[in-house]
Amino acid sequence: MFFSVRKNRDKKEFEYEKIRTLSKKKEKFAFFRAFYIFFYYLLSVSFLGVFFYVLFFSPFLAVEQIEISGIQELNLENVSKVSESVYEGKYLGFIPKKNLLIFPSGKIKKALLDSFKKIKSISIEKKFPNFVEIKIQERKSLVIWCEGERCFIVDENGDAFEEVKLDSREVLENNLIKIVSGNVKNIAEGEKILEVEKVDFLNNFKDVLQKNSPIKFSDEVYMQSHMAEEVILKTSQGWNVHISILIPLEKSANALKLFLDKEITSEDLGRLEYVDLRIENKIFYKFRDEEKKEGEEEKTKQNEQAGEEEIKNKETV
Question: Does the pLDDT value for residue 77 go beyond 80?
Answer without folding.
Answer: yes
